[in-house]
Write a structure and sequence with these properties.
Elements lengths: L6 E5 L4 E5 L4 E5 L4 E5 L4 E5 L4 E5 L4 E5 L4 E5 L4 E5 L4 E5 L4 E5 L4 E5 L5
């Protein structure tokens, strides 16, 4: 469902799913599955291993991952998840939240304004 342009989906393996109703949204993946669901701009999901999931309803949100699984769920801006080891979870409802890790597992759950 692509209601507004531009929306970009680049993939070389199935399945990759991009669902968006606002511009711009970008999904770049080379392994299955990757899912990007967004209703506000901008949102970026970049992944090279399965699975990666980004669900957001506010801008901006970035998920960059090279190991499985990584999950970013956010409803306020900005939230950033960068990971190179599995599993990593960032869940936040207030801004800003940043999780950067190279060890497993790491979890950040917050409903406060500062971390």
């Amino acid at each position: 469902m692509n209601r507004l342009e531009p929306t970009t989906l680049t993939t070389n393996l199935e399945p990759a799913t991009l669902t968006t109703d606002l511009e711009p949204a970008t999904l770049t993946t080379n392994l299955e599955p990757a899912t990007l669901t967004t209703n506000l701009e901008p949102t970026t999901l970049t992944t090279d291993l399965e699975p990666a999931t980004l669900t957001t309803n506010l801008e901006p949100t970035t998920l960059t991952t090279n190991l499985e699984p990584a999950t970013l769920t956010t409803n306020l801006e900005p939230a950033t998840l960068t990971t190179d080891l599995e599993p990593t979870t960032l869940t936040t409802d207030l801004e800003p939240a940043t999780l950067t890790t190279n060890l497993k597992p790491t979890t950040l759950t917050s409903n406060l304004l500062t971390f």
